Fold:
Amino acid sequence: MNSISNIWNHPKTSAAGVLIGIVTIAGVLSQQGITLGTAGSGSIVALVSGLATAILGLLARDPEPVNATAMGSSSTAKLGCWALIALLMPCVSGCSGASVAQNIVNWTPTLQSAVATVDSTAAMLDPAEAPIFAAATAGFDAASNELVAQAKAYLANPNASVLAKLQTAVVTFQQQVNTSLLQAAKITNPASQQRVHNAINAVATVVNAMLALVTSISSKAAVARMASASTIKLATVRPYLDEDKAAALVASHYGEPLSVASFQVAQVDASATQAGF
Structure:
């Protein structure tokens, strides 16, 4: 009876829950290649997901009465937060190639800045441990330049050949980052350890975000090939990843609440792990 009463007393929140469920299920069906038929130039699944997301957005913008209680305002804030999450989730489960390509390119300045920080970090470390860090991150500049170049190339000419090069570039860099996380674990000086941890995690966050974007526009066969080339899995380096710092970086990049960014980071990690990375 409490469940029925809650539905009756909070119709907007209940409707939002149903719509979020629809968007989530549609995302999973799309990832599995299930379309349920065509609708115009798209699929039934994409149409239902788009309509559910649009209605959810309207619900989130529906204003509360002037005399709303604090609890009502809190519910509305939570509703808006979940609506934003649902609006962002399709970018992990199937945006268009053009929008993903632009999103990847939008990450490149942050990537270059993170790599520049890595380059300058060695000078601040304990002299005995700086060589370990330098060796662990030696390939970052070249890998970053290649990934940025392929991202821009795909944005300018989004075809299968360029996408294949982009897939290779992002997996190569992701593996270098994972290797560096394991090697940097040998650094034991507390001050040096924290600097190293922060520097590599910033690069890891961007590369993992770009990996998620690239896989979202890749075929199942291509994702399987990418995953098979990833010999150092996320599960191995997860103890060295900082989800809080990753969420803060994602929130800053997209200009969104930290709670939404935390959800995105968790979703990206879960999706990558499920795909075999």
Notes: The first helix runs from residue 2 to 9. The chain has two domains: 2-92, 96-275. The chain has a mean pLDDT of 78. The two ends are 44 Å apart (CA to CA).
